[in-house]
Amino acid sequence: MSAPAAREGRLVGAVLRCYPARWRRRHADEAAELAALLIRDGTPAASIAWSYLAAAAREWLVPRPGRSLSTVATALLAVACLLGFSAALAAGTAPARAGTTQPSSGPVPPKVGPAPEGAGSSSPHQLTPCRRVPPRQVTGAIPAAGRPQPSSRGTARVRSC
Amino acid sequence: MSTREQDVLRRVGEASVLVLVSLAAGPKHGYALIQDVKQFAGVELGPGTLYGALDRLERLGLIESLPADERRHPYRITAPGAAALRVHLDSLERVSAAGRLRLQLGSV
């Protein structure tokens, strides 16, 4: 068996181990042989592995008679861990991009706009406090009243942030 | 019981129906099933999808596995499986006919 074929076989074998034992006892040999035949026909091993992985997740997650909810929850957790591990592995195998990243020269100060007058802040790194805005008259649209009406909400204290 | 309730294949998914249609022509193992479905439906079943469908159909008693031939298990449609497939295909036929008629009337 050539090295790539052995690697593909190992990949499929590893994915088949993700199935519940009951399923493996029943189908594992057959599934491995089917994968070998499909790979021989030119189907990418990754696509076969993905198909088995998704089906294994379904196999664990779909409740069956006699399987308790805690088993399902544990399986869900295991799948989440597996996905997290795969993502970490994928992130670790991106050396080209990682090599070009410039090191940071220190913490980036938060972007703060100019402090409003009377805010009492001279440093740009301090957050601007909320300020009270005096109530203003809002032009109402009540023609029967004959003149602009102040909104009842205008009397409430309004904050600018 | 209404025809819709009799149609047990209504909820099993397309892959299971395709597998059942393929097995209606005679017993097959996994690889032959994938090839046959690809040929008559133009659908490439993933191996994971295939085993999911086989498990589901076997649990419902619609197919059964035959003694293993080397490492491969051939599968065969059962009498209830054939009956369920007939009901499902009749249902699809009615929906298909209604759809075609309405497309003609609406002349979209």
CATH structural class of chain B: Mainly Alpha
**N- to C-terminal distance of chain B:** 36 Å
Number of strand elements of chain B:
2
What percent strand of chain A?
Answer: under 5%
Helical content of chain A (DSSP H or I, runs of 4+)? 40-55%
**What is the total domain count of chain B?**
1
Descriptive account of the structure:
The complex is a heterodimer of chains A (161) and B (108). Chain A has 161 residues and is an all-alpha fold. Chain A is built from five helices and two strands; from the N terminus they run αααααββ. Chain A has a two-stranded antiparallel ribbon. In chain A, helix 1 packs antiparallel against helix 2 and helix 1 runs parallel beside helix 3. The longest helix of chain A has 24 residues. The model of chain B has no long low-confidence stretch (mean pLDDT 90). Chain B has a single domain, classed as Winged helix-like DNA-binding domain superfamily/Winged helix DNA-binding domain (Arc Repressor Mutant, subunit A, Orthogonal Bundle), CATH 1.10.10.10. The longest helix of chain B has 28 residues. Chain B is mainly alpha-helical and 108 residues long. At the A-B interface, helix 2 and helix 3 of A face helix 3 and helix 4 of B.
